[in-house]
Amino acid sequence: MADREAATKHWRQGAWADTQALQARLRQELTNPAPDAKAIRALGAGAEALKHLIAIGRNVLDVDKAAADIELPELIVRELTLVEVSEIRRKQLQETGDLDPADLLAMREAIGADSDVPSEIVEEGDEEPVAA
C-alpha cells in the first residue's frame, strides 16, 4: 500500500506540474501582442493529450478506488452560548496561570449580569468558592 501511495503522490505532483506549465505557456501566448494561432492550437492539443494521460494514470493507479477507501473525518459544528465561551476562556486562563479576579470580573461584565454565569467559581485547589 505504501508503494501505491507514493506512486499516487508522485503521479499527482507530476500531473499538477504539467498542468501548471501548460496553463502558464497558454496564458503567455494569449497575452502576447501578436498571438500565434498555430502555437495556441498546439497548446490545446497538448492540453487534450495531458487530459488523457492524467485519466490513464488515474485508472492505472486506481486513484478513485483508493480515495473511496479513505475515511474522511467528520466535523461537528454547533453554536456555543456565552456561558460556554466564558467557561472555556476561564479554563484557558486558569491553565496558563493568567487568571486573576479583575480578569474574571471583566469577563462577567462583558457577558452581562443577566446571563446564566454562576456567581461563584471554584478554582482548582480551593475548597471555598471564590466570589467575584
Written account of the structure:
- This protein has 5 helices and 2 strands.
- The protein has 132 residues and is mainly alpha-helical.
- A hairpin with an 8-residue loop joins strand 1 and strand 2.
- The two termini are 59 Å apart.
- The relative contact order is 0.08.
- The C terminus is likely disordered.
Task: Describe the structure concisely for a colleague.
A hairpin with an 8-residue loop joins strand 1 and strand 2.
Gross morphology? elongated
Q: Supply Rg.
A: 30 Å
H/E element sequence: HHHHHEE
SS strand fraction: under 5%
The average pLDDT value, as a whole number, equals 75
Main sheet: strands, sense, barrel: 2 strands, antiparallel
Low-pLDDT runs of 5+ residues are: 116-132
Helix content: 55-70%
How many H/I helical runs?
5
How far apart are the first and last residues' alpha carbons, in Å?
59 Å
Q: Strands across the major sheet, in which order?
A: 1-2
The secondary structure category is mainly alpha
Strands, count? 2
Identify the quaternary structure here.
single chain
